[in-house]
Amino acid sequence: MEKVISCFQKRPDAVSRLICFPWAGGGSVHYARWGNILNSSTEVFSVKLPGRESRSREPFFENMQQIVNEVVDTLLPLLKEKPFALFGHSFGAFTSFAVADVLKKRHHMEPAHIFLSGASAPYSEIRIKAPKRSQMSDEDFLRWLTSVGGTPAELLKNPEVLKLFLPSLKADLHVVENFRSERPDAPFLSCPITCFDGKDDAPHDIQAWKDVTSGDFTVKMFEGSHFYLKEPENEKIILDYISKHLETSQMDYL
């Protein structure tokens, strides 16, 4: 499991687990450290994708199905043990959705809660008409990346860092740009879904996520742009919110 999951705080007695999926080009450390912040009733698993960190020598995945298969195969026995929730930002939101879809339809399991951030639903018009960033020239791509924010300017000006960083980012964008999902005729989940987003980010069709579940649906907006969740104040609010809702789901499970 260590190949696929980073877990900074192993908590075998935790009542629930939070599974976190990285944004495009991202590693597992940002979310893994949440295990040091959330209370002891929650164990945090942060997904580590090929082509980065300890998996840097592995080839990037080429499609969403490869990611879903690996995550589900790795975690399925553990997910049967206790309640679990999913969190994903941007590319990670699509990955969370794809994993939840397979868990429900193939294994008749669903999360206690899904937390989605910074992304339109995969079948929404905004998302379908979005430009293909992975096909941009490096020059145009860097210009776009600068406008999105979240990546320190000094890194974007460092050719050696860019040589390491750009391939994983473009590989993940290629996966998400080619990921297709039809709008469900009826909700296939019953768990609550919460969508987070930055007020200054490019517009997302967040309401379209409501079609996925018959359960509670909540939208929470934050000050900031695409990487609003990196701001300490916003992160604290998000983690407090997640803690509160995981505690509620633990009570329901009991």
From TrEMBL:
SUPFAM superfamilies in UniProt: alpha/beta-Hydrolases
Keyword Lipid metabolism: yes
Residue ranges of every copy of the Thioesterase domain listed in the record: 17-244
A family per Pfam: Thioesterase
GO molecular function, one term: fatty acyl-[ACP] hydrolase activity
Keywords on record: Fatty acid biosynthesis, Fatty acid metabolism, Hydrolase, Lipid biosynthesis, Lipid metabolism
InterPro entries assigned to the protein according to its UniProt record, in alphabetical order: AB_hydrolase_fold, TEII, Thioesterase
GO biological process: medium-chain fatty acid biosynthetic process
Superkingdom in the source lineage: Eukaryota
Family affiliation: Belongs to the thioesterase family.
Keyword Hydrolase: yes
Name of the protein in its database record: S-acyl fatty acid synthase thioesterase, medium chain
EC number assigned by the record: 3.1.2.14
Catalytic activity, reaction form: (9Z)-octadecenoyl-[ACP] + H2O = (9Z)-octadecenoate + holo-[ACP] + H(+)
